[in-house]
């Protein structure tokens, strides 16, 4: 077979990424060579491919669902919002510009060409390409320069399915309204609906699904139940509600629970670094924005950020600096990752990201940071606690270590550790060794589970998404759309207006 499909959504966080990943896993299990694609992604949660390209983590997750290696063509345009209302444009895995919204708008025709080239390339190498939209296809103020939703669909002649989140309410109105706002040309490509995050009695929903089909001429291709505990790589801060207050399903192996507080920076990036900690039995992970929320933590984590200097200023305004310094003085564990690591040093020299010049760091590690214009993208491999560790790096700030003990290309002084490596905690042996040391320093009788595998847990979650599509979607209809494109529909006409008949056509 060969073909493509675009998964759009009535809103952000409707479930486009999850449905796209589910379709990819379902097809991969059928022996189909399938690839994900998102023309334009706005996210601070990114990943480095094997050949050193930066793409959205959601597309890397979808590639894993498809059982293929992620690559730059799967997410040709990535926007990374900064602290000044501007965004960094990453094109085919490399940062090329910093732009405002209006500046970026002028670049879109060229970016659409590049996106279509990447989509054509993927379609030449894979049997199926499952595309994901961005935001909503009914953002009519942006339609004339759209490159991710109906602009892409019309240019590439893709059938479109639209996902709606029934859990937030108003799903029928959102679906009907989405179609009503589209042009006739765009409407012709919309082939059906997915109702997502459903919980309740399906018998009560059935009449609404039939009325939606009658009103729009498009069937509901699946009612997907709410799934808990997926913890998949999120795109933006809207998804943080699914990673807040995470605790393991199983209880602790030892006598104690280990408490981890993660500072929730305004420009938080790569927050999925903490997922592996959160799935450990007996580890409770919470986001923190106030000093008192750090008080009972056995480990405080300063995660990555797109705006190190601005978020350091925010940290100080929130009164977190004295707490962190008191923890260090008392030998209580602190871990900094990437931007969080940069904050822990003595001095930050930044004429690139914030253009703030010389900024005093927290002074907890003997390091200096110099921001360079070229972004560092790497897939390092090393060792810590006698365990092999693989990670990835995405940063402009280059850290010079002037003392302390080595720690994953970073350093450690007492209970304070810092590294530029994302993804290190996904290495099971390293994670368990770190937790054992944190528990010892915190005086906790906590013992990491000896058999926890983060890779296996992620695979199980992706299989659950494949099951979601296989068990709750009209897979025969999906096959037909992928192979044959959108079927011919009656023009969409709002209620009360005369509808076309066979003789009218």
TrEMBL record:
The active site is at 338 (nucleophile), 422. Keywords: Cobalamin biosynthesis, Glutamine amidotransferase, Ligase. Residues 259-428 form the CobB/CobQ-like glutamine amidotransferase domain. One of its GO terms (biological process) is cobalamin biosynthetic process. Pathway: Cofactor biosynthesis; adenosylcobalamin biosynthesis. Pfam families: CbiA, GATase_3. CDD domains: CobQ_N (cd05389), GATase1_CobQ (cd01750). Residues 6-230 form the CobQ/CobB/MinD/ParA nucleotide binding domain. It comes from the Bacteria. One of its GO terms (molecular function) is ligase activity. InterPro entries: Class_I_gatase-like, CobQ/CobB/MinD/ParA_Nub-bd_dom, CobQ_GATase1, CobQ_N, CobQ_synth, GATase_3, P-loop_NTPase. Belongs to the CobB/CobQ family. CobQ subfamily. Catalyzes amidations at positions B, D, E, and G on adenosylcobyrinic A,C-diamide. NH(2) groups are provided by glutamine, and one molecule of ATP is hydrogenolyzed for each amidation. This is Cobyric acid synthase. It comes from Kitasatospora gansuensis. The gene is cobQ.
């Amino acid at each position: 077979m060969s073909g493509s499909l675009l998964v759009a959504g009535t809103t952000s966080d409707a479930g486009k990424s999850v449905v796209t990943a589910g379709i990819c896993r379902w097809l991969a299990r059928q022996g189909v060579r399938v690839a994900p694609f998102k023309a334009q992604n706005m996210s601070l949660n990114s990943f480095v491919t094997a050949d050193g390209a930066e793409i959205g983590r959601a597309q890397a997750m979808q590639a894993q669902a498809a059982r293929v290696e992620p690559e730059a063509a799967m997410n040709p345009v990535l926007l990374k919002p900064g602290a000044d209302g501007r965004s960094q444009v990453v094109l085919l895995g490399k940062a090329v510009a910093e732009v405002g919204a209006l500046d970026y708008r002028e670049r879109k025709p060229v970016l659409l060409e590049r996106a279509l080239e990447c989509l054509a390339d993927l379609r030449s190498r894979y049997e199926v390409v499952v595309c994901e939209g961005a935001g909503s296809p009914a953002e009519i103020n942006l339609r004339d320069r759209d490159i991710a939703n109906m602009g892409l669909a019309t240019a590439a002649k893709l059938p479109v399915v639209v996902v709606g989140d029934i859990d937030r309410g108003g799903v029928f109105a959102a679906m009907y309204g989405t179609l009503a706002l589209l042009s006739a040309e765009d409407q012709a490509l919309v082939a059906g609906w997915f109702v997502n995050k459903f919980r309740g009695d399906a018998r009560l929903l059935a009449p609404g699904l039939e009325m939606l089909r009658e009103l729009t001429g498009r069937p509901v291709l699946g009612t997907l139940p709410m799934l808990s505990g997926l913890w998949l790589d999120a795109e933006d801060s809207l998804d943080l509600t699914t990673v807040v207050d995470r605790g393991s399903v199983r209880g602790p192996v030892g006598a104690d629970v280990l408490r981890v507080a993660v500072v929730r920076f305004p420009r938080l990036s790569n927050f999925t670094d903490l997922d592996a900690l959160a799935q450990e039995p007996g580890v409770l992970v919470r986001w923190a924005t106030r000093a008192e929320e750090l008080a009972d933590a056995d480990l405080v984590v300063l995660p990555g950020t797109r705006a190190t200097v601005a978020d350091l200023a925010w940290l100080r305004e929130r009164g977190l600096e004295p707490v962190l310094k008191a923890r260090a003085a008392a030998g209580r564990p602190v871990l900094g990752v990437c931007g969080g690591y940069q904050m822990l040093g003595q001095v930050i020299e930044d004429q690139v990201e914030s253009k703030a010049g010389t900024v005093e760091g927290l002074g907890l590690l003997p390091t200096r940071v110099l921001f360079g214009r070229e972004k560092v993208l790497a897939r390092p491999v090393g060792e810590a606690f006698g365990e092999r560790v693989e990670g990835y790096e995405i940063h402009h700030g280059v850290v010079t270590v002037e003392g302390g003990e080595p720690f994953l290309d970073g350093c450690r002084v007492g209970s304070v550790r810092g590294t530029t490596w994302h993804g290190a905690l996904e290495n099971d042996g390293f994670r368990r060794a770190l937790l054992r040391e944190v528990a010892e320093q915190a005086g906790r009788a906590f013992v990491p589970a000896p058999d926890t595998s983060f890779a296996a847990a992620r695979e199980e979650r992706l299989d659950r998404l494949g099951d979601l599509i296989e068990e709750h979607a009209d897979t025969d209809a999906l096959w037909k759309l992928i192979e044959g494109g959108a079927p011919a529909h009656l023009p969409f006409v709002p209620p009360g207006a005369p509808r076309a008949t066979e003789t009218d056509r």
